[in-house]
Amino acid sequence: MAINTQNKKLIFGLKVRKLRQEQNLPFKALSEKTGVSVSYLNEIEKGKKFPKEEKARALAKALNTTYEELMSTQLSKNLQPVADLLHSNFLDELPLDMFGIEAGKVVELIANAPMRVGAFISTVLEISRKYALQQENFHFAALRSYQELHNNYFEDLEQATEEFATANRMPFGENYSLAHLYNILVQRYGYTIDENELENYPSLKNFRSILKPDSKKLLINKDLTDMQRAFLLSKEIGFNYLELKDRANTSSFVRVESFEQVLNNFKASYFAGALLMPQESLRQDMETFFKKKTWDSVGFLDIMNKYNASPEMFLHRLTNLMPRFFGLDQLFFLRFNNTPPDKNYKLTKELHLARQHQPYGNETSEHYCRRWITLWLLDDLYQLQQADNYIMPIAAAQRSQFVGTDDEYLCFTIARPAHPTPNTNVSVTIGLRLNNHLRKTIAFLDDPTILIKTVNQTCERCAIIDCAERVSPPTVVEAQEENKRMWKDLEKLMK
Q1: Considering only the top CATH level, what class is 5-133?
Q2: Exposed/middle/buried for residue 97 (C-beta within 10 Å: 0-12, 13-18, 19+)
Q3: What is the residue extent of each domain of the chain?
């Protein structure tokens, strides 16, 4: 892979610094030998400046090396992790500017402590290999951090959505017909839409859509629900209206090629959610709902159905609005998938605002706590399906108290079959941390019909005795207790 100019400067500076230090040459001595000022040498070693050939040859001679060796982008073995990082152009993939970090500061950090940075990089790479992390894992993690930094609310995208709706005479706050959305894509953006071609490719049956960019032909899975079609079409409109060029052409990522793709996919999805569920209208609906004295699962689903939204669209949109309009910024969002009757539950999406909350992804093959509402509602859904009584998505609320902490959350969960994925169910949950502000905001918080459950992260990490829902022994807890006993005995022995 070609290495860019900035990284060439950094590698050159690292080599000059290493050779100078190995030969115990102060800046002043090297300056006298080469005719290069001390300040310029300092800039070179920090990767900020790159000398002309004459000065580079003088540096090579003064440092007892060849010009060719000094100009090479190869680094010594002890700096190899840094070299690997720079040759991969990984720094170019990190959205540093989004977090207010200057790329030059990162370069300076590496230049000032290459050995330590190299050790750190080796550690990160070792961890990523151990847990089979790919570069896209870092991209998605960076996106989540970006969302959390902004409380998952983006004024520019909200405004762009309103401007689009006004320009296209779409009454904001009303359901848009599929025909209207189809017409915008076809007439304004020159799309052709086909709902039959994907049937010719059985291996692509789980994709909701695939775009053929050269012909602007959008292939849509014919098994999608109307709400899924509405979101998909709105998202496609978002790509065009926001002029997002770098994107994936499949509804779900097959391969992530850049962070820009991940970010643009998020922006188009945000646009779609804001278009179908306008912030002011949904805010008013939720404000009215929170004033109710009792939990009303039917009323909760009625709000979702008003906007012809799927459970995930609805709850994810609430993560945009809760911090902004209700001051509820300590929350999490989880999505679990399950293929019954298998009892394996897979966490497929998560978001945490304000801080990392107790229920979070665990990649160590442990068993998530079955007391979580997001899991037992999946079991309830399966029971309805088995009895042939399933009609529509089911909703429930729970107050989850995490054992051993002060954390308690009011959780809203909706479960339904996954479309178009066959034989799979999905549940989505939004959890709001219980505090005084939540008590003032939600009138039905103390409704006795809302289950209060003591929960934990996983069975392996839970010390709750006689848990009826336990599916695995508390192996992590037992190991921790054994470790405590060992240290206690060791301390006693040493005394």
Answers
A1: mainly alpha
A2: exposed
A3: 5-133, 150-276, 280-458
The pair of three-digit structure tokens given for residue 166, joined into one six-digit string: 């006004």
Residues 6+ apart with CB under 8 A from 136: 253, 255, 256, 262
pLDDT in tens, 67-92: 998 898 777 766 665 666 666 555 66
Structure tokens at 473: 């022994």
- Nearest to residue 358, comparing CAs of 383, 331, 380? 331
pLDDT at 1 over 50: no
Per-residue confidence at 421, pLDDT binned at 50, 70, 90? confident
Asked if residue 409 lies in contact with residue 357, where contact means CB atoms within 8 angstroms, the answer is yes
Spatial contact of 259 and 93, defined as CB atoms under 8 Å apart: yes
First to last CA, the chain: 59
How far is it, in rounded angstroms, from Cα 162 to Cα 181?
15
Q: Are 229 and 220 contacting, i.e. CB atoms less than 8 angstroms apart?
A: yes
- The three-state secondary structure class of 417 is strand
Would you say the C-alpha torsion 165, 171, 173, 179 has a positive or negative sign? negative
- Average the pLDDT over 136-157 and give the result: 86
- Quote the tokens at residue 283: 């805010």
**Sheet holding 192-194: strands in order across?**
192-194, 217-220, 209-212
- Fold of domain 150-276: Arc Repressor Mutant, subunit A (1.10.10)
pLDDT band at residue 102 using 50, 70 and 90 as cut-offs: low
Q: Against a cut of 0.85, is the pTM above it?
A: no
Half-sphere exposure of 295 (CA within 13 A, CB side): 17
Q: Residues 169, 175, 176, 178: what is their CA dihedral angle, to the nearest 10 degrees?
A: -170
Residues 6+ apart with CB under 8 A from 20: 27, 30, 45, 63
For residue 88, the model assigns a pLDDT of: 59
